[in-house]
Amino acid sequence: MSFSLAASAADAVVRAAAEGDATHNPVLPETPDLIWGAVCFLVLLIFFWRAVLPRVKKLLDERGEAIEGNIEKADVAQREAEAVLAQYTAQLADARVEAGTIREQARHDGQRILAELKDQANTEAARIAANAQAQIEAERQAAVVSLRSEVGTLAIDLASGVIGESLTDDRRSAAIVDRFLADLEASENAAGSTAPASGAVSS
Amino acid sequence: MLIRFIAVLAIILIFWLGTRKMKVVPGRFQSLVEMGLDLVRVSIAEDLLGKKDGRRFLPILTTMFFMVLFMNLTGIIPLLNIAGTSVIGVPLVLAVVAYVMFIYAGVRKHPGSFFRNSLFPPGVPWPLYIIVAPIELVSTFVLRPITLTLRLLMNMIVGHLLLVLFFSATSFFLLLGNGFSLFAVGTLAFGFAFTLFEILVAVLQAYVFTLLTTVYIQLALADEH
Description:
The structure holds two protein chains of two kinds.
Chain A: H1 2-22, H2 31-163, H3 170-202
Helix pairs in contact in A: 2-3
Chain B: H1 2-20, H2 28-73, H3 89-109, H4 114-119, H5 129-176, H6 181-221
Helix pairs in contact in B: 1-2, 2-6, 3-5, 3-6, 5-6
């Protein structure tokens, strides 16, 4: 029952819809329809062609340029950064080389100074030693001279004491002492040169 | 007819506003407009025709796409309720434009040899031309504009009829009262579903119409048929 009602209702609707179109075949065009459709198309065509698309094209070009410009800018910045980096690296290498040479120079200088100082010290030491020797020699000479006179006096005193007679006659006593000492030196020299011989003779 | 003028005005208004002050970094509305234009420019024209030819035919293709799209969409906009393309005038005009365009493209590219290559494709053994030539003649020069027109027209008419059917049935059942209100709920739901479906069909048909026109132009431009 309800189905047949629904079906008849659908039928009615379809027929109503079809009757609207049934006055003319939908595939056959009407002249005003064509004309106004063409007018719409032309209006839109001119609108898109002359107004919208040129703007879009301009925008796209601008956008492309902006992007390219940015890329170029970034490239330039990167190149600059690379150049600066290379420069710094070169400077750093230079500085390293310089530091190396300076260090080497300093080492050489140090060695040279050390050697000089050593030489100086050696010569100084030699000079001091020579001085000391000369002084010692001088003092020995002085000691020998003073000893000689003192020994003479002492020996004369002793001898005068022993023989009970003054031997203070200077001229004579000095002659005696001198002769004694000369004998002493001569015997000493002879002993020094003939010591082995005397040894051989004594045995 | 008024509906078409409204659609034309809507297109002009939207694209005028959308492209009036275009910035390199787009705002929301501009992005949306650009997305629509890019659909035609990139995924239809440049993909199929290449950059150079794509630019040549872009104004016509863009116009076709948005005209069909907006006139399809009037079918589901309240108070308009009928697609501008569901009367044969617009589809026929557009199909004729497409027809003229692809023949023009072919003749410009291969003056003298376009029709011969279209009817007698090179590389086919000559006895077969007896069969091939009429087929090519009919399919290329007769059926293409007809199918373009009828595909769009019938899709829109049928969509419109379906919606009319469902919503008329809904009000019919409601007026009938008592137990039939339940049917009204069902038909209303279907009517709603088909309204959503019509949006899909509207976009799809606009895309298909433009795409096929582009393909015809591409075939006409191609060196070998």
